[in-house]
């Protein structure tokens, strides 16, 4: 079973919220299908044991990632990787919609895509939008967790509804 990158496990041994952190920093055309396959596999495994778990997926995409052509790596030119990453984000969004009544295994509650370009300064593309998307991502995960595990959010002395 996958070792998760970040998780809330309470009580001991029962995952309530899990985050998977991935990146595509080299050979994007060969890597992105693998990232989606990895996601579905690792999420399905944990959802078999804990169907109520909330799962988020964070991925870093490098628009300056070297691409493999003819057995050799080369730097991409211009916005060469933009269409490839657009397709990846579309397919990732299709997997990030696990809400009632769509409880299919292999889906996640949310995703957050951080786009960088290691050949430019600043490194992070669209920093303000990325920060806002990150806040929305975390809010979504916490709202899903609150809906499934409301007792985790009770203050001392507060009674459940």
Automatic annotation (TrEMBL):
It comes from the Bacteria. This is Uncharacterized protein. It comes from Thermus composti.
